[in-house]
Structure formats: C-alpha cells, structure tokens
Design goal:
- The complex is a heterodimer of chains A (365) and B (373).
- With 365 residues, chain A is of the alpha+beta class.
- Helices cover 52% and strands 19% of the residues of chain A.
- Chain A contains twelve helices and ten strands.
- Chain B is an alpha+beta fold and 373 residues long.
- Chain B is built from twelve helices and twelve strands.
- In chain B, strands 1, 3, 4, 5, 6, 7, 8, 9, 11 and 12 form a ten-stranded mixed beta sheet that branches. A two-stranded antiparallel ribbon of chain B has the order 2-10.
- In chain B, helix 3 packs antiparallel against helix 9, helix 3 packs antiparallel against helix 12 and helix 11 runs antiparallel to helix 12.
- Classes of the chains: A alpha+beta (365), B alpha+beta (373).
Chain lengths: 365, 373
Amino acid sequence: MGRRFLFADRRRATLTVLGVAASLLLVLVLGGIFAGAVDRVTYYIRTSPADVSVSQDGVRTMHMSASSLPADTPERVADIPGVAWAAPIAFASGSVAGPRGRQLSYLIGYDTRTGRGGPTRLVAGRTPAAGEAVLDEQAAKQLGVQVGDQFTIMGTSLRAVGFSTGGSSITNTTVFVELSEFARIHDDRVSYVLTGLDPGADPEAVTDRIEAEVGGVTAQTREQFADSEARIVTDMSADLLRLMSSIGLVIALAVIALGLMTATLNRLRDFAVLKALGARTPRLAAAVAMQVLLTVVLASTVATTAALALAWLLPLAAPAVQISITTAAVAQTTTTALLVGLIAALWPLRRIAALDAATAFRETR
Amino acid sequence: MKARVEASVPVTRRFLTTRPVRTAAGAAGIGLALMLMLLLAGLWVGVQDRVTTYDDHLGADLVVVPAGTRNLFADPGALPAPAVDAIAQAPGVTRAAPLRTMYQILELPHGKAAVAAVAYEPGSGLGGPWAFTDGRAPEAPDEVAIDALWAEQHDFAIGDRLPILGHPMRVVGLTDDTALFMTPLLFTTTAGMDQMLRATGTTGAVLVTTANPEAVAAQLRDEGYTVRTPAELREASLRLATDIYGSPVRLMVGVAFAAGTLIVALVAYTRVTEQQRDLGVLKALGATPGRLRRIAVTETVALTVLGTLAAIVLLIITRELLTWWRPAFPVLLTPGTIAQTAAVAVTMALLAAWLPARRLNRLDAASAFRSGR
C-alpha cells in the first residue's frame, strides 16, 4: 500500500526522491572530501617502512607540525634494545614552483643510501642526489615539470629526477631530497627518527623504552602515528562536518516532510475509505512508514551513485581533491536519514490518526 | 477595458492564501535550501575575511622573507639569524625585528588543535597581538597569549599551562580579533620559540618599518633579500585560501543549488497538481493555456520570493546559533552575496516552474467536472 501511495504520482515521487538524494549527496560529499584528506594525509606514514617513529616531545603529527630533535638522537635510538635501525629525516613546510604554477609542499630530507624515509614508490626516474629532487607525479603534472626539468623549492632551484605517488593532498604536495640538500635549502636538522624493529620485538614496549631512555622525545608505533595524523583532519573538520551534515539532514527532513505531507493530504479520502473498511491506524501508519523507507532507500541509492560518480569525476577537474565514499559513511547517512524521515512522517501520521472515516463519503476535499 | 482589468480576480494570490500552512511549508523548504547556499557563501566570505587578519595587523611596512616564501604560515622557510641586524643597518630602515610564523598542532587532553603560531620580539612593537580581552602580551620565553574565543572553547584561562612542543607555556593573555578560520593565532616570544625549535641560528622573517618603503624594498632586493609588502602577503593568503577551499566550496554550492531547484520544483509541482481542478475550471471558463502557465510561473516565483525571505530569517537564526556555539565560524553577508543568491533563486524558480507549466499545457477543461482528484 505504501509503495502504491508513493508511486501513484510518479513525478512527485521522483522529485521527492531526487530532493532527498541531493540533500544526502551534500552530506556524503562533504564527509567524502574529509575522508579523502585523511587518506592522503596519512599516506606517508602508512606506507613508511618504520615500525616506530620518534619526534620531539609533545609532537605526535607531521602535517602542520614542527619537530626538532638533537642531532645525536638517531644514534641514541639505534642503541635501544629491540631497535634494528634508526634513520633520521628532516621535515619542513614550504612551496614548490614550476612553469605552470606554485603549490604548498612538505620538503623531506632523507638518507638516499638506505632509502628509509624517502618515497615509498617511484613511478618514474630515480632517487635524488645533490641538487636533485623527487616530486609527486600529480604535483609535477600540475606544475608542468617533467623528469629532467629544473623547478624551485623554497627559492632553491633543483632538477626533478623522479616522480613519487600518493603524496599530494588538498592542501599540499611532497618533495623528497637528500639530507645534505635539505640542509642547504633550509637548515641542518633532525625532525623525526624512523625506526625499524628486530623481528619479534614488541613495538609498544620499544616505544616505552625509547621515551624512557632517550628522553625529550615522543615515540609512536606506525598505527599510533597514522591515527594521530588522521585525527588532525577529523578534529579540525568535526565542527564544520557537523554543521553541514545537520543542515543537509534538515533539508532532507523538509523535503520528506513536504513530499509526505502533500501525498498524505491528497490521499486523505483513500485513507478514510480504508478506515471505513476496517483498517486500523497502525496499519495506515505502516503505509506512511513504508513510504519513508522507500523514499530514503531510493534517495540513498541515487546519492551514493552520484557521490561515487563525483569521486571519479572531480579529480579530473581538481586533482588535489580526493573524495572517499565509504560503506560506513553511506550506512550512517542512510540510517540518520531514516530517523529524520520518520520525524518528518509525524505530521501525516497525526493527521491520519485523527481522520474520521466519514470523510470517505464527503464529496469535496 | 481598464475597469475589467481592475476587477480581475487575483488568482495567484488566492491560491497562495487559501492553504496558508502548505504555502508556509513550501516557502520554508525553499528557504532552507537557499539558506544553505547563503550560509556557504557567507562562510566563504568570512573565511576570506579572516585568513588575512594577521597580514592586516603586522605593523610593518615591509617583510623580508626567505626566498620563495609568499605566505607567512603556509611556507615559512628560514633566514640566518644575523640577517636581522644586517637589515636593521640598511639606510632608511627605522626598525627591524625577527618573526617566526608556523602552523602547529597542539596536543590537548580532548584532542588535537591546529594553531597559527607567531613568535615575535616583545620590545619591537611589531608582529605581536593588537587587542586583548584579558591579560597582556607575552614577554618571557615561557609565556604565551592565545585567542580568547579558542581559549573559551578549550577551557583555558590566564595562568593555565598550555603544552607547546613539549613545553608547558603559561597563558598570560587572551587576544581579541585573532580567530583565523580553523586556526586561531597564538603569540609567543622569538626567544621562547627558538629554544623550543632548537633553531637559535635562524629566524623566519624580518619585519621592517621605514618612511620610504619603495626605496628600502628596492635596496634590500639589491642586497639579495626577498621583500614582500603586507599587501602582497595579504593577496597570497587570499589566493592560498581560494586554492585550498575553492573547489570544495564550489562543489557544495553546486549540490545545494541542485537540492534547492528540486525543492522548488517539488513544491511548485505539488501545488499545481493540487490546484488542477481549479485550473480546469479556469480553462473551462475561457482561460488560455498561456494564462494558466503565467499563473503557475507567478505562483512559483511568489513562493520563491517567500522562500528567499524565509532564507534570510533562517540564516540570521543560524548565524546567531553559530555565534553562540562556535564563535570562530565567520559568516559574513555582503550585498553581493545576497544579490547572487537572489539571482540563483530566480533561476531556480524558472527552472522549477517548467515542469508544472508543461503539465498545464495538457490540462483538460473537463477535469473541472470530475469528482475525484
């Protein structure tokens, strides 16, 4: 019955479903943009060979962060039982410029002999030597830099000798250079120490040992570091997400309420006829609830499809913006929309509950 | 003829006033969608207004920055510390003071908070906080002044300890007008920050005052320095905000526009369907299809105008709620934004009126005499 009531006027049903879908799309896309940012921001840490990362005391992140360690920290960390190797990296924020523009960038200096702390994978070229650098392929494309071209990082001209991948986000890209080159461009510093563990060593126990024995440092396992990095985005965006999601859901509520209200008012005589034939109010309420369910499920399907299409299309126009639509996000949005839909159904339900069966025999509306 | 026109029945107005609840509900729905667009536009204007706050209050005529640096916080870089004295000695320079700026993530008990940290020379009068709600500017290396709104949100008061880079800094001042979008300003001394960063041999930038900015800038550039004016830094901050937030904001506005158009279409279509019998009567009485279409379009436009008014009221309420909940979320409305939204509303109304107008083309006058809907 709910299905027949909903689709009796297909145009109206389509408009209602599309209206709700647009509202849910708003919620999904915004969440997807932040989820995409989390994915990119944590890429370097997630793909790093380090089991444990060491930073300045009180620093648990890389993105938007500054960390500075004493120069002897790598040796001191390497002496801790359970540590197989310790590699320093230097890290700073700056900008990179090419023939076609300019982007914000993190500059990472690493030991090119071991490769630890450098790009996870090179999609073109080779590791950098003095006066050379590896750029992220996406940034290189946007900046108009080819392998072998000169470009500028923090005002210093370098030659691009390779392209890495996964290092560009909505805010910045990543450039890798040799440690000595970093010192020439910026300063001589140890920002983080990446640490590999002996087989069988317990990462949590080693982090405790590093913090206790080295002092003035924060040590985190790869999972802790990545989680901490992800929380920068989630904590910063939480208020904005909550605000936009609330507005999106209020719009969805308004659309469902409008659609249901008009559909119910136009069908009041039908409901009255059913009442006169013995249908009880819970049965009629179930018909309204079914309309909500169908509207939300259909709208959610349309919104998810559109969001996935946008996630595929948008990077073609704006490569730095990545949209990540997860099953959890779709499930959460649909569930919230269902709850919102049921709230929107309260008014028609109240009207049906108070409906007089005699209405069925009246001539006018 | 004139008398006939004056005596004509105001059909659209009557349609709108016959069922005031449905009219109000329709206008509220349209209002919500337009409000979202106004809110996004207002937030965007607010973001643009806030991102340049520090550039607007530098107190310097020129800023010497590391080569390649265009934005104080996003690409700070490093200069050798002796550059401050060398620049101070340059002819025409009245004052020169070191400055270090950077984003920093603070580890707080309930989560992470990003701040735009400023380390300035307390005695210079340059680059420091410019307004306070309480307390004073930091003077000692372990002192910090924080944005008052941010302090309230995170429960910090004068005298509390705030951990920065592992150092428990003492809050001595609560600053006013320092809430940048998502990243409030935090002020400390260059001595304190240099120690925390173990970077005593470098500085971030040098603030310069002079009576003759153009000549001094040219001279410093000749000496190999990169010199920016506050206006150039401001422009770079705006461009950076547009680069980062531009695409997502445009996308969200696009989706909000689609949602709004569909809501207007739903409301307009539903009303025409409900009024089908009445419109059939009008047709039976001789109304032309053109007249019926005009009625539908006028009704849709009238509803959209009501929705626009509802949007403004809803936006004012939302803005007040936001000011109470998160005062750092800037929502600024400009005449341009309102005019733009009004134009969007008209476009939405015309697009949305197409469907019911099309339906009226096929309206049968006999529908006036049918008993059902």
